[in-house]
Amino acid sequence: MAANYNNSAWFYDSLARLVYGNALINAQVYLLKRISLNSKILIVGGGTGWILEEITRIHPSGLQITYVEIAPDMMAQSKKRNVGNNQVTFINDAIENVDLPKDFDIALTPFLLDNFIEENLNKIFSSIAALLKPKAFWLNTSFQLTGKWWQQVLLKTMFIFFKVTCGIEASKLPGIDKCFEENGFKLIEQQSFFGDFIGAKIFKK
Ligand SMILES: C[S@@+](CC[C@H](N)C(=O)[O-])C[C@H]1O[C@@H](n2cnc3c(N)ncnc32)[C@H](O)[C@@H]1O
């Protein structure tokens, strides 16, 4: 399953900020209120790891975080982040290859699921869903198309750019909401960003 962003690790955050300003950050931070004290959290595809510092700002201690990221250069940057007194386990591998205890209270998948073709989305999705406790929360951010012409243009440009630089497999958005629905997850809260092009959603198992 090809969605390894290693080649982009040195410019990813700068490019994201140039194109989207703070929208990618705001969308992810918006969801963090759902994290409660002493939770066990799974982060998949956290990129350079800035999300760890945002989480630490809210909870400087008491969290058990497992951080799974496939790209070694992304992981190297993530390991340098300030995580306060939270306990973080870094795993540099693909989530579908990792054997973890099935007792997470919360999963975070920030701009992960939109990178896969339909068939692989289902595989990645199942491997994450299986690690969650009953009634766990899944905080997901993804791009979404809501009918504005420029969204298609921007999306196509991104897919082509990351296919060329990183070999990303997707060339269109897979059915992410459908996947949550078919697997019995309930959408309990959502907010849109950047002209509705970015969806931040809280699902409950
Ligand atoms: C589009 S980037 C988003 C990075 C970060 N969440 C952000 O918003 O800045 C997707 C990230 O997921 C990682 N990734 C892709 N497939 C993965 C997998 N199967 N397991 C773990 N990480 C994966 C990529 O290497 C990349 O860092």
What's the quick description here?
By secondary structure, this protein is of the alpha/beta class.
Features:
alpha/beta, binds S-adenosylmethionine, seven-stranded mixed β-sheet, 205 residues, 7 helices, 26% strand
Explain the overall architecture.
This protein is of the alpha/beta class and 205 residues long. It has one domain: 3-Layer(aba) Sandwich (Rossmann fold). Helix content is 35%, strand content 26%. The protein has seven helices and seven strands; from the N terminus they run ααβαβαββαβααββ. Strands 3-2-1-4-5-7-6 form a seven-stranded mixed sheet, sandwiched between helices. Strand 6 (186-193) and strand 7 (198-204) form a beta hairpin. The longest helix has 18 residues, at 149-166. The protein is globular, with a radius of gyration of 16 Å. The two termini are 25 Å apart. 36% of the residues are buried. The mean pLDDT is 97. It binds S-adenosylmethionine. S-adenosylmethionine binds at residues 1, 3-5, 16, 24, 44-47, 68-71, 74, 94-96, 110-112, 115, 124.
CATH superfamily: Vaccinia Virus protein VP39
What is the CATH first-level class name?
Alpha Beta
- Architecture (CATH level 2) name: 3-Layer(aba) Sandwich
Identify the bound ligands: S-adenosylmethionine
Q: Level of helix content? A: 25-40%
Largest sheet: 7 strands, mixed
N to C succession of SSEs = HHEHEHEEHEHHEE
Q: Which sequence of strands runs across the widest sheet? A: 3-2-1-4-5-7-6
Strand content: 25-35%
Structural class: alpha/beta
End-to-end span in angstroms?
25 Å
Number of helices: 7
CATH topology: Rossmann fold
Mean pLDDT metric:
97
Note poorly predicted spans.
none
